[in-house]
Write a structure and sequence with these properties.
By secondary structure, this protein is α/β, with parallel strands linked by helices. 40% of the residues lie in helices and 20% in strands. Bound molecules: adenosine-5'-triphosphate and magnesium ion (MG).
């Protein structure tokens, strides 16, 4: 038997009271975007806190499920067989066929879970449970009923049509993109920032990204790697506007005029400033970084005081308490890891000092930043003008 539909389960958004329909609409929209890349014609419908995806043509089951598993807000994907209501006897036959197709090995316990959403159906849920259970037992004597802990929970939903399902494929959870505002992700070529973007997007946040490029110190391949990473994150977030900023001249100025043990901190402060300007220009209400306390010298709590000081927008750092291994596990799960570990240099690794300060003093950082005050306004303006926007999907 071919599945004809999917029933989409969602949990968190169902509790949002009056806003519920907004959340459901956002979820349907994201499902539509995700399925655009898949084969087949489909219709999405919303009824009584449920979302159905009905296929009007052939579709690739695995491809469709993989796409739906990237849609935040979905907790479960149930492959459904959808039959017309042609009376109880036909329903019994359809159910037997369903079991035969989905469970060729009949050594299972089962329970029927009938739901009568259409109240004019001649049998109520209790009757349906009993009668359909009897049909199954008669057809497949190897199967036995277990009402408490069945191997197979066979749900039969009576609506205009009848839906049968028994499998739930886990979805990614979270909230649908588009329900929480927009944030600007500082996306480098490393392992952490794509994971950070994924995690904040999972809370329903739309993502834009900015990458600081330092040619010729960083190569075109390094830039392409960031685009490739953005593409992988976009599988979950939908299209990302990636801003590429030429950061070379600012970096060189810092390198020439500021103490080398403070290079990274001062450079990070300029990244945050520029990111915030681009964020505000693009209606983003937060920044996202892949920072984690103590991971490197520029991520000690003292260093974070120094980088955070230049921002007025909230900076979301979802990895702040994670060990590297935990971050790696997520990056493997979302398939960014293999790209992240490609060996192309990024601008931070070229201009790093042998012994960077680990406990920078904010006043001293501010004082030393003054060394470039004669040139920075011009360089800053020029850097903003280099903004190249790449739409990554
Ligand atoms: P990642 O693995 O994400 O590169 P990291 O461990 O290398 O992080 P840092 O280089 O200290 O850490 O950078 C900290 C954060 O600053 C990154 O997670 C990212 O959000 C941002 N960042 C660093 N370099 C860049 C860059 N070239 N362009 C945009 N954002 C950057
Ligand atoms: Mg990095």
């Amino acid at each position: 038997m071919k599945y004809t539909s999917f029933l989409i389960k969602y949990a968190e958004i169902a509790i949002k009271g009056k806003n519920r329909h907004l959340f459901e609409e956002a979820l349907c929209k994201q499902i539509k975007i995700a399925l655009k890349k898949c084969e087949g014609q489909f219709v999405i419908s919303r009824t009584y806190g449920r979302i159905y995806i009905d296929y009007e043509s052939d579709f690739d089951f695995d491809e469709t499920v993989a796409a739906l598993q990237c849609v935040f807000g979905i907790t479960g994907i149930c492959p459904v067989v959808h039959v017309e209501d042609k009376g109880f006897e036909q329903l019994g036959n359809d159910l037997k066929k369903y079991i035969d197709d989905v469970y060729p090995d009949k050594n299972h316990t089962f329970k029927i879970n009938a739901r009568r959403a259409r109240k004019n159906y001649p049998m109520d849920s209790m009757e349906l449970n009993t009668e359909l259970g009897a049909v199954v037992l008669e057809a497949y004597p190897e199967m036995t009923v277990d009402v408490h802990n069945p191997d197979i929970l066979l749900t039969v939903e009576i609506r205009e049509n009848i839906y049968m399902y028994s499998e739930i494929i886990p979805g990614p959870g979270g909230m649908p993109i588009g329900t929480s505002g927009k944030a600007m992700l500082l996306l480098s070529g490393g392992i952490d920032s794509p994971v950070a973007g994924y995690m904040i997007a999972k809370r329903g946040v739309t993502i834009d990204a900015v990458y600081f490029h330092a040619p010729p110190y960083t190569s075109e391949r390094a830039k392409q790697k960031v685009i490739d990473l953005a593409k992988k994150v976009a599988k979950y977030t939908g299209p990302i506007n990636l801003h590429v900023i030429n950061f070379t001249d600012i970096q060189l100025a810092i390198y020439e005029k500021c103490p080398h043990d403070e290079l990274t901190i001062i450079m990070r402060r300029y990244m945050m400033r520029i990111a915030e300007d681009i964020a505000k220009e693009n209606k983003c209400i937060g920044l996202i970084t892949g920072e984690s306390i103590g991971q490197v010298a520029s991520q000690t709590m003292q260093s974070l005081v120094a980088t955070n000081e230049v921002c007025t927008l909230p900076v979301y750092r979802p990895l702040i308490g994670f060990d590297k291994q935990e971050i790696v596990e997520i990056s493997e799960k979302i398939d960014t890891y293999e790209t992240s570990i490609l060996p192309y240099e990024d601008c931070c690794t070229i201009f790093v000092a042998k012994h960077p300060v680990t406990k920078p003093n904010l006043n001293i950082i501010k004082r030393d930043e003054g060394n470039i005050s004669d040139v920075i306004d011009e360089l800053y303006k020029t850097a903003l003008e280099t903004d190249e926007v790449i739409v990554v999907e």
